[in-house]
Amino acid sequence: MGRGLKVLIADPLDPAALAALRARGLEPVERSGLAGDALVAALDGVDGVIVRGATKLTAEVLAHARTLRAIVRAGTGLDNVDLATAKARGMFVSNTPAANAVSVAELVFGLLLALERHLVPAASDLARGRWEKTKYAGRELAGRTLGVVGFGRIGREVATRARAFAMAVVAHDPLLPEWPAEFAWAPRRELEPLLAESDVVTLHLPLAPDTRGLIDAARIARMKPGAVLVNAARGGIVDEAALAAALREGRLSGAALDVFEREPAPADHPLLALPNVIATPHLGASTGEAQQRAGTEAAAIMARALLGEG
Ligand code: MLT
Questions:
Q1: Alpha helices in 202-269 (DSSP H)
Q2: Residue to mutate (ligand 1; options 55, 153, 282, 287; most atoms within 8 A of CB)
Q3: Where are the alpha helices (H) located in 3-82, listed in sequence order?
Q4: Strand pairing partners for 149?
Q5: How far, in Å, CA of 224 to CA of 161, rounded?
Q6: How many angstroms does the Cα of residue 285 sit away from the middle of ligand 1?
Q7: What does the pLDDT read at residue 4?
Q8: How far apart are CA 162 and CA 201, in angstroms?
């Protein structure tokens, strides 16, 4: 048991996570919405910290966190943690890789179907009493090729669901040494051929120095005319100005975006005004199931890190 060991809960967590920490004798200290000096002060005297996406554990913050030994991100992306500083200071760092995958994959299809069947404008017309049956001709997913960029847990959940919609799937992942045999039906491609071949490209990569701006103007130009881009990964992976230009010119037929380079996205963001864009406020992991899994996984990982037990 870890009586006396404190874990700062820096972003709101599912109550099950707090109970799981207490059950292992760890003391959760709930303080959310902190940054800079206030965050450094809150980290003083704690052994571990659990964050979601909002709290930024920057190099400056971590450099001053004298007692901190373990950082757990309840969720997938670790782009809000300065990994180099954490490593230099010998801190344990982990995410909860499996927790969000199904929720993100389901959102991808929610967005894609909504985009291709014009569900948002059609529902909004009807809510205002307009029965626009002929205005909204959509497109089926069946028979189209889905290009999955990033073939980790989330990418694979997306690919699996694409089969149910009778889509063909190709995938790209530079980090996989061997292609998983059970996904032989989703053949591996280099990025450029995947972009040229896919009717729908969906991104499932972390934001890192080598993926920032990966989908730039040149790569957007390589995409099939009339293709659709889905991004429920991280905004910084896509050059937003280049994407807006391609959508305005009709080179891409649409985009479904759950993430933005700057979040919250400003109300006057050029992509939000385009009729061929459906956008949501980073809802990928926003399900009760994902939050519960992320919280309890984070608590278990933290306990292992601080106490050496499961
Ligand atoms: C994640 O990385 O876990 C997801 O994008 C969810 C989030 O950050 O809210």
A1: 217-222, 240-248
A2: 282
A3: 15-23, 36-43, 59-63
A4: 172, 203
A5: 22
A6: 6
A7: 86
A8: 12
Question: For the sheet containing 70-73, what is the strand order?
Answer: 27-30, 6-9, 48-51, 70-73, 92-94
Does the beta carbon of 285 lie inside 6 Å of ligand 1?
yes
Confirm or reject: Cβ of 254 under 6 Å from ligand 1: no
- Two tokens, residue 221: 């130009």
Record the tokens describing residue 237, joined without a space.
Answer: 């992976």
Partners of 230 in the β-ladder: 202, 256
Q: Which residue has the tokens 């959940």?
A: 157
Amino acid at 83: L
**Positive or negative: CA dihedral 59, 60, 63, 64:** negative
Give kind and range of the element (H or E) at residue 295. Answer: helix 288-307
What is the distance in A from the centroid of ligand 1 to the CA of 205?
12
pLDDT in tens, 8-45: 999 999 999 999 999 999 999 999 999 999 999 999 99
CA-to-CA distance for 117 and 130, rounded, in angstroms? 17
Centre a 10 Å sphere on the Cβ of residue 216 and count the other Cβ atoms it contains.
Answer: 15
For 46-202, where are the alpha helices, taking DSSP H only?
Answer: 59-63, 83-88, 101-116, 119-127, 153-164, 191-197
Candidate of 11, 32, 72, 76 to mutate for ligand 1, largest count of ligand atoms within 8 Å of Cβ = 76
Those residues of the chain that have pLDDT short of 70 are 1-3, 309-310
Task: State residue 3's pLDDT score.
Answer: 56
Alpha carbon separation from 136 to 64, 99, 130, 144, 190 (Å, rounded): 56, 36, 12, 20, 35
Question: pTM of the full predicted structure?
Answer: 0.94
